[in-house]
Amino acid sequence: MHSPNTVPTIALSHVLGLGVRLQTHEAVALAREVVAYSRGTPTLENIQLGSDGSVSFISTDGAPSVSNVADLLVRLLPPGTPKVPAPLRYTIARGLEVVEAPPVESLDEFSTLLQRFEKGASRDVLKGVLQRVARPSPPIVQPIAASPLMFRSYGSDADAPEHSLRWWVLVAAVALAASFALGFAVMDRIVDRRAAITSGVSPLVPGVSAAAVYSCRSASIGSRADARRAG
Asked: What order do you get walking across the sheet with 47-50 strand by strand?
């Protein structure tokens, strides 16, 4: 909870933990605001950013110095960071006193040396950093997993050709058997239809073939003829 007069803040370490990386001019703006605040040790864990672009410290123990502000810049702009001009690297090295050059005498001098690498007012620049924090991250598209190979039961790739051959032989045998069964069924239907056409009678009962009907009718006609001769 924040009181009405308190500016909402977020720790710099949390900002970086969210994947936000400061550009060169943003790191310079932060360093100059740290110098202006002048209370507390400028570490990633101790610095916090206000929603108005201001900088404060979680703990005000200690004070900024040229060397620890320069070290802060090294952490914000590690080697390999793109678009860091060589003169800025040289200025940071002077602040760390790791080059043969006149040392930076005070925080005000160091802030003045950093000023030429700024792009806009420091607080406006830092508000832009917080806007990147508040911006929703793009949705992560989950890759579609490749479906596993069907019926793959062999233990190693060396067994794959032999297993595949056995599988296709089995499929061919099943298909051949099915074709024979279908052929017998078709032939039976053809015989039934020919028998029905020959007798002039079509089967009326489902499931009874024309040949069976023809056989029953012939037997009935023969029985009536025998009865007339006997009478």
From this structure: 9-11, 47-50, 55-57
For 48, the 3-state DSSP assignment is strand
B/e letters for 39-77, b = 16+ CB within 10 Å, e = fewer, are: ebbbbeebbbbbeebbbbbeeeeeebbbebbbbbbeebb
Answer yes or no: CATH 1.10.10.10 is held by domain 9-134: no
Dihedral sign, Cα of residue 95, residue 97, residue 102, residue 104: positive
CB neighbours of residue 210 within 10 Å: 20
Structure tokens at 8: 């909402």
The reported pLDDT for the residue numbered 229 is 54
Tokens of 70: 């320069």
Crossing angle of helices 24-37 and 66-76, rounded to 10°: 150
pTM value? Answer: 0.57
H-only helix segments in the chain:
12-17, 24-37, 66-76, 86-96, 107-115, 122-134, 160-199, 210-230
Tell me the pLDDT tens digit for each residue of 125-162: 999 999 988 765 454 444 455 444 444 444 444 444 55
Structural domain boundaries of the chain?
9-134, 160-230
Q: State yes or no: pLDDT of 106 exceeds 80.
A: yes
The confidence score (pLDDT) of residue 121 equals 93
Of the CA atoms within 13 Å of residue 66, those in its CB half-sphere come to 20
